[in-house]
Amino acid sequence: MADTLRRLVSTSSFSALQDKLDSWLKDYHLLSCDQNLNRCCELVELTARVQGQLFAVLSQTASEGGHYAGVETLKSRLLPWLGSCFALGSAGVSADTSLSLIQESVEKEKRIRDLSQSHEHEIHKMESQLSSTRLELDSVRQDLEDAQLELDDTKNKSATTLLATEDEILQLKAELRAACDQADLYKRKLDVLDDYERQIRLLKDEVSFLTAEKSLLRDRLTRSRSPSPLPRRSRSPSPLLRSDSPTRAQLTSSSRHARLLSRFGDLYSTERLEAQNLLRRYIDELEMVQRIIFIGTVEAFHAAKMAYRQFKLRVRKTLSPTHAGPESLEDAVVDYIVRNLDLYDVQASVNDVISAMNVHPKISFPPEVDFILLGSFLREVCRVAFAMQTLEPPLDLAFSTDGELYSESKYRRSFDSEYSAPLVAYHVWPALVEGDAVIMKGEAVTRRGALWSPRRSRSRSSSPVRPRSRAGSPSRPLLPLYPQRVRELDSILADTGCKVHASPQGGAHAHVQETLYGCRSAHTAEAGLWTATPSSLPSSASDAGKLCQMLASFPSCARNRT
C-alpha cells in the first residue's frame, strides 16, 4: 500500500490536473465547443485514473486492517457518498451511463456558469441603474434647492412689490381726495360764476331797459320842448303819460313768450315720456298712466296760478307804500315778479299737486308707491306755468273733460285712437291757449262709447247720477264741476270779497249757483252742494269781470244775464 501511495505522489497527478484546469479556464472563451468538450473529457479521464488509484489504496488499506477494521468509517462516509452521487467505474457501470452522467454534469456546470454570468450582468446593470438614479436624485435635489431659492427670492420681491403697491394706493387715494376737493372747489367757483353770469344778464337787461326808458324820456323831453297845441298835457304827470314807459316785463314779453312755448313743447316731448316710462314700471295700464300725467299737469297749472296770485298779492302789498315810479303799480308788481322768479316756492306747489292727485276720483295708483315719483316732472310744469302767468295775456290750459266733442283745433288724436269716434275718451296732454286762441294743440284719445266706458277710481263708489234742479231754473242742464275749477272759483271769490258756504246736503251731484252783477250760472259739482253769494260788492269792475270769466269757463252752462 505504501508503494502505491508513493507512486501516486511521485506522479503529481493532482498537480497536472490543476494545471490543466487553469489552462482550460484561460482558454475557455477562445476555444470552440468541441475543443472544450475534449478538454473536459481529458480532465474526466485523468480524474478517473486518479480515483482508480485512490480506490486501490483504499482497498489495500482496508485489507490490512482485517475483516472488521474501518467498517464504521466506510459505512459513515464512503457508502453514503457512493449511493448518492457516484457510481463505481468497475464492470457494473456501462460506458453509456458514464457518458450521460458526464454530459449532465457538464450541462449543469454550464447552466450554473450562465446563471452566474447573468446574475453578475444583472448586478452590474442594477448598479449602473442605481448610480444613474442617484445621479438623477442628486439633480432633482439640486433643482429643488434652486426652486426653493427662487421661491424665497420671489417671496421677497412680492413683499417688496406689495409694499410699493400699498404705498402707491395710498398715494393715489390722497391724489383722489385732493382731486375731489379741487373739483368741489371748481364746482363752487362755477356756481359763483353762474351767479355772476346771472347777475350780468340781469344787469344787461336793466341797462337795456334803462336805455330804452332813457330814449323814451328824451323823445318826451324833445316833444315837450317843441311847440305843441297842448303843452300842458305833455308836462303833466298824468297816469296816461306814465303808462308810456315800458317795464322790463313788457320789453322781454315776446322773448319770454317764445321761450315758454318751446319749454312747454319740451315738457310734452321729453319730460312727459320720461315720466310715462317711470310709471310703467309700476302700472301696466297705459291709459291710467296717461291719465295720471295729464291730471298732474292740469293740477300743476292750477297750483302755479294759485301761487302766482298769492305771490302777486304779497308783492303788491309790499310795493304799494313805496311805489313812486313812472309805471303803474300793477306793472311794477309784474316787473318785480319777472325779475325774481327764483323766489317762487315751487316745492309747496308740488306738494299741493300731489295732495290733490291723491284725492282725485279718476286716477288710481298702486299702494306701494306714491305720486312723489313724479316730483321732478311736476316741478318743471309748475315753473313753466308760473312763468306763463307773467305774460300779457297769460297762457293757460284749455278746459277739457272726458266725453267732450273732439275738436281738431284743440287736439291731435293719439296713434291708438278710433279716428271715426267723435268723442274724447281721455286726454293725454292739454292744449295751451292764449285768451281764447289755441296756440299749442294737445293730444287726446277718441273712442266710441267714451261716455259709457268704465273708469277705475281710488275713491269709494258713489251713488248713481241723479240730476237735480232748483226752483226757478227747471230746464238747466247739470254738468260736472271739476275740483280744480272749484278751487279756482274759490280763490277768485275770495279775492273779490265773496263768501263760499258748503251746504250740508251731500251726494254724488249738487247744485252751484253764483250771483254777481247779473251773472247767474248753474253747475253740478261732484263734491257736494256749494252756494256762492256776494257778501259785499266787488272792489272793482275788473274783479267782477274775472269772476264772470271764471264762471263762463264751465262748458254748456246755462247763463242768464239780467
From TrEMBL:
Q: Which GO terms describe its molecular function?
A: lipid binding
Localisation per UniProt entry:
Cytoplasm; Mitochondrion matrix; Mitochondrion outer membrane
Q: What is this protein called in UniProt? A: Mitochondria-eating protein
Q: Which Pfam families does the record match to this protein?
A: MIEAP
Question: Which residue ranges does the record annotate as region Disordered?
Answer: 220-254, 450-480
Domain Mitochondria-eating protein C-terminal intervals: 256-446
**Keywords tagged on the record:** Coiled coil, Cytoplasm, Lipid-binding, Membrane, Mitochondrion, Mitochondrion outer membrane
The organism encoding this protein is Lepisosteus oculatus
Superkingdom, taxonomy of origin: Eukaryota
Q: What does the sequence similarity comment in the record state about its family?
A: Belongs to the MIEAP family.
